[in-house]
Amino acid sequence: MAEILPLLQTSHLTMRFGGVVANDDVNFTLEEMELRCLIGPNGAGKSTFFKMLTGQLTPSEGTIRFRENPIAGNLPHQIARLGIGIKTQIPNVFNGLSVRENVWLAARRAARRDASAKRAAEIVDEVLQRIVLTDLADAVVGQLSHGQRQWVEIGTVLAAEPELILLDEPAAGMTDEETVRTAEIIAEINKTRALIVVEHDMEFIRMIAKKVTVFHQGRIMMEDTVEAVLADSRVRDVYLGKKVAA
Amino acid sequence: MTEPVKLTLQCVAVLFACVVVGLLPFYIDLFELMQYTLFCSMAVLALSLGFIWGFGGILSFGQTAFFGLGAYSYAVAAINFGDSTPAIGLAILIPALFALALGYFVFYGQISDVYLGVITLTVTLILFNVFNSTAGDAYTIGSARLGGFNGMPAVPTFNMPFDPSNILFPEQSWYVTGGALIAIYVGLRLLLRSPFGRVAIAVKENETRAALLGYDPRLVKLLVFVIGGAIAGFAGALYVNWGAFVGPTIFALSLSAEIIIWICIGGLGTLVGPIVGCFLIEYLVSQIGTQQAVNSNLVLGAILVVFVVLLPKGLVPTIRDGLLALGRLGAGRSRRGDAARGHEIVDEGPAGAQPAGAE
């Protein structure tokens, strides 16, 4: 190996919608096995950033490299096959299907890599236990609560066994207990996988974060440890306001 | 309804259908049998759209394009070969290839659903005009004259496989057509239980999520579309076998619209629904045709309006949900009884939990 590549690297990544610049010259690097939190006010460009990483949007300019593969402009399924999984902001699940079917669909793709059908069934059982929905495995996802549907989506992401997991507001709509559990699961996943987590809940960020990247008006404003970021006066100004001071 | 119960019901329905197909010729006269043969070939067409629309989320306004191509392919091939066996194969293959070409541009071009409807509608209209203007000797394929607006009369009907001298009797044609309908129903059921079928349903449910999990929605939809085209083409061959005739009106809009009505009335998202809807409407139309007082299109329109307003889900899903509700009432009652006797109760999950694609 000539050099150790970062897991994910974007350079000069820019996304324009007409006159609106949603992401402006974003240079972002994520190492293998890293856990990174993204914070920033609404409209800072976090979700747009995720959409470019997963192929839902094609960047106007710039490149994205996932290990040695340039992925900017690839289609979502091609990027997913390389090993990037995402939980989107609004639960994006198969509402008409059962919990088990949702997880199976993800597991089957993952199991295909080591070409065994049995493996898929194993993954499904594992994941159902992990997201504590074994009892509701045959329930239709559309009839579950918002929090439960969040879990189903996290379950599908886990079952797909990606190399890099993107979580867009995983704790939204969850009870305090569930939030703690989500933090635990994230820590557990991070033992073997890299993650990028977008969150607004500062308590949650404190629970999980090591390094935090702050987005503001489509740009990266700063990148540091949780403590340093929360102590920064600019960050307070644009985003945290009086919440942290209180 | 739990998975084994559903499976049992489906098996019972298939067995029942087999018995009906087997015994019907002994109970009704030849004219009626011919009519039911026609209904069965139409029901195969209904299944083709019921499958791609209900389970692939692809609303084709021009399923008759594949039906008509299948019919013409069969007619041309049967006249040239003098044997229906390869002709049936071509009636499946040619529409499937056509669906592959059309679907490739539509799905890989990421054309939205509305345009898909417009394109399929236009394609069937173009085919109508093309075949309508093939009068004259110039339009001859081998020894088969396409015949323009007069169509192709006296097309050889089905014979025993690879034995052109042994032409099927109407009773035998009934067995073939009825049997084909059952076989295609069973085939589609099996397909929907297979990994590919489950992925197809997932793509219909949520294309974005399917793509984010690594499935290529374009490929999945294309394959579903091609399977639908192949089945519709086969239905075309069955249709020509019934009437020994094919003309350009097979591509007409009225039939295209009728298939959609069958499915709306029978129930979208089921496989039995399109068959039930097709039989009901076709029977009704044929009955109305025996008198002069009311126009059949008027009745058809009225029925559609009533269904859209009162039973928007269609017959089969409405009946199924009704039965499920009754079953729950019964189960609830016996459960309370069990509880009173101090038995342990196993919760079966939320009421009405029913995965999509179940019927």
UniProtKB/TrEMBL annotation, chain A:
**What is the name listed in the Swiss-Prot or TrEMBL entry for this protein?**
ATP-binding cassette domain-containing protein
Organism (species): Jiella endophytica
Q: Which domain of life is it from?
A: Bacteria
Return one GO MF term. Answer: ATP hydrolysis activity
User: Which controlled-vocabulary keywords does the entry list?
Assistant: ATP-binding, Nucleotide-binding, Transport
- Record domain ABC transporter: where: 8-242
Q: What is one term from the GO cellular component aspect held by the record? A: plasma membrane
From TrEMBL, chain B:
Query: Transmembrane stretches, by residue range?
Result: 7-28, 34-53, 65-82, 88-107, 114-131, 174-192, 219-239, 259-285, 297-316
Has UniProt tagged this entry with the keyword Membrane? yes
Location, primary (coarse class): membrane
GO MF annotation terms: branched-chain amino acid transmembrane transporter activity
Pfam families linked to this entry:
BPD_transp_2
Q: Give the matching CDD domains.
A: TM_PBP1_LivM_like
Question: Which stretches are tagged as biased composition: Low complexity?
Answer: 349-359
Chain intervals with Basic and acidic residues compositional bias:
335-346
The answer to whether UniProt assigns keyword 4Fe-4S to this entry is: no
Q: Which UniProt keywords apply?
A: Cell membrane, Membrane, Transmembrane, Transmembrane helix
Which GO CC annotations does the UniProt entry carry? plasma membrane
Where in or outside the cell is it found?
Answer: Cell membrane
Look up and give the membrane topology term: Multi-pass membrane protein
Q: Where do the record's region annotations for Disordered lie?
A: 333-359
User: Under what name is this protein listed?
Assistant: Branched-chain amino acid ABC transporter permease
